[in-house]
Write a structure and sequence with these properties.
It is built from six helices and five strands. By secondary structure, the protein is an alpha/beta fold. It has a single domain, classed as Rossmann fold (3-Layer(aba) Sandwich), CATH 3.40.50.2300. The chain is globular. The model has no long low-confidence stretch (mean pLDDT 92).
């Protein structure tokens, strides 16, 4: 069985490891990136899997370098539509609106409840159904 893929983008290593462990406990593949730029460096791989696998992104909003919404815009410019969950301790109405306009499934406040994140991941993957 081919598993779903959750891409975790956060400049905090502990967050990446924690979310990766959660995703793997759900039977999904986790790929973690320390920055949006690192994920974009892997865009050839991403372009190859987006058409065939259910993929979503869990991204921090504020990171060194590109923000989570910058990442969304860069992926859209490359015609890569990947449902995204933005997680932030600094979200406000304008940031939330911007993220949603760029295609975010939701914006969650840090720290978010595990059940809330799991529900958002399932919603994002369902929005990315291939079948």
């Amino acid at each position: 069985m081919v598993s779903d893929i959750v891409l975790i983008v956060d400049d905090d290593q502990m967050v990446r490891e924690s979310v990766s462990a959660l995703v793997e406990s759900l039977g999904m593949e986790a790929r973690a990136y320390a920055s949006a730029e690192r994920l974009l460096d892997d865009s050839l791989w991403l372009e190859s899997v987006v058409p065939t696998r259910r993929v979503c992104i869990v991204s921090d909003l504020r990171m060194t370098g590109m923000s989570g919404t910058d990442l969304q815009a860069a992926l859209a410019a490359r015609k890569l539509r990947v449902p995204t969950i933005i997680v932030s301790g600094f979200a406000d109405v304008s940031v939330t609106v911007k993220a949603m306009r760029l295609g975010a499934i939701t914006v969650l406040e840090k720290p978010c409840e595990t059940a809330q994140l799991v529900a958002a991941i399932h919603e994002a993957l369902a929005a990315n159904s291939k079948g």
